[in-house]
């Protein structure tokens, strides 16, 4: 995206009246957008994430269990990449794993591949579209009926937030160090298109979908008999040193001053600036901006949750620069390596860390 903007001092406006983001739960989008537009005089932000009819929720055949398993885990986005490896590695540790995916056919195929390749039976599939309220409720009902509790939630589902010319990207042959440093931002402008619609989809999936899935399963996590664990997948792009806006960067370090309403206001401001091509002038991240913002607020939400639920172990983990579809296979680590941090935190002892950011298997500094 090109920016023809005069240089200005970045402003911080996280506490302003939020623009309506799509897929709000309280009221239908049309009602909420009209209400906010009336109050603020602003035009409502258009929805692009699909909130259409609920998909069919079917569960494939499960092996019979005697009694309730010691540990039950849900992994979102579990049909490929890091997600399927988290499922495999947890199952190898004796955890009963519910692999979830939006696409039923792909999810079932993933379960069958794990069962056959690793000789594991305590892994099942349940359809989950984290953006669909009916789908979230269906999963929660199944777990409540079948197990009566949930012990581990790995929020792994996510999207990249941009449209990509993958052939052109491969032709650039960008060094992984350039990716990790963020210095590739200008190199990729010719092959990566950062559109408003993709940004909305990214924020909806990576933050709102994660939050809503977590909220739907929290009552079951509170019933855990082994101590609940929530692991949120984040990214190196989430580290606050990558936030150009100094005032906002310092504000984000203080998780105690933030809640979901303030996060929503900030994201709405970000989308408004993106729509008006003011990202650079306002001091937002320029390397994969929507993805970076989505992961920054995932980190923040992780700390908010950990503060509210001190009895749980709630952390976020950057899996490393893993070769998966979300980064167009530009990474250098295998999915097996990328899964280790999430698995380690899922199996952490009851006195383990909470409200922390991990860079793979080591505690890092995101804020």
UniProtKB/TrEMBL annotation:
It holds the Pfam family adh_short. Gene3D superfamilies: NAD(P)-binding Rossmann-like Domain. Residues 22-32 have a biased composition (Low complexity). GO terms for molecular function: oxidoreductase activity. Keywords: NADP, Oxidoreductase. Residues 1-47 are annotated as: Disordered. Signal peptide: none annotated. InterPro entries: NAD(P)-bd_dom_sf (IPR036291), SDR_fam (IPR002347). The keyword NADP applies. Belongs to the short-chain dehydrogenases/reductases (SDR) family. This is Uncharacterized protein. It comes from Hordeum vulgare subsp. vulgare (Domesticated barley).
């Amino acid at each position: 995206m090109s920016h023809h903007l005069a240089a200005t001092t970045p402003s911080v406006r996280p506490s302003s009246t939020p623009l309506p983001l799509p897929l709000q739960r309280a009221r239908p989008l049309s009602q909420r957008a009209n209400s906010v537009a009336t109050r603020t005089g602003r035009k409502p932000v258009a929805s692009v994430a699909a909130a259409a009819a609920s998909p069919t929720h079917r569960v494939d055949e499960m092996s019979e269990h005697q009694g309730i398993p010691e540990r039950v885990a849900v992994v979102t986005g579990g049909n490929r990449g890091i997600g399927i490896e988290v499922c495999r590695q947890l199952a190898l540790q004796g955890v009963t794993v519910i692999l979830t995916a939006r696409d039923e056919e792909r999810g079932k195929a993933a379960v069958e591949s794990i069962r056959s390749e690793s000789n594991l039976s305590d892994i099942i599939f349940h359809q989950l579209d984290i953006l669909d309220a009916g789908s979230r409720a269906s999963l929660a009902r199944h777990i409540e009926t079948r197990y009566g509790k949930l012990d581990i939630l790995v929020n792994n589902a996510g999207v990249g937030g941009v449209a990509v010319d993958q052939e052109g990207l491969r032709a650039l042959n960008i060094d992984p160090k350039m990716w990790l440093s963020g210095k590739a931002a200008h190199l990729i402008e010719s092959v990566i298109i950062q559109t408003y619609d993709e940004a909305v989809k990214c924020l909806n999936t990576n933050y709102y979908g994660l939050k809503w899935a977590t909220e739907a399963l929290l009552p079951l996590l509170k019933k855990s008999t082994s101590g609940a664990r929530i692991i949120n997948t984040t990214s190196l792009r989430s580290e606050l040193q990558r936030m150009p806006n100094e005032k906002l960067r310092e504000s984000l370090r203080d998780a105690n001053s933030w809640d979901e309403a303030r996060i929503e206001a900030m994201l709405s401001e970000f989308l408004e600036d993106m729509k008006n091509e003011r990202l650079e002038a306002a001091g937002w991240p320029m390397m994969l901006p929507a993805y970076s913002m989505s992961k920054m607020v995932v980190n923040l939400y992780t700390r908010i949750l950990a503060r509210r639920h001190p009895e749980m172990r709630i952390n976020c983990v950057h899996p490393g620069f893993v070769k998966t579809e979300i980064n167009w296979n530009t990474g250098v680590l295998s999915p097996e390596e990328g899964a280790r941090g999430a698995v380690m935190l899922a199996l952490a002892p009851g006195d383990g860390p909470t409200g922390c950011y991990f860079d793979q298997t080591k505690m890092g500094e995101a804020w």
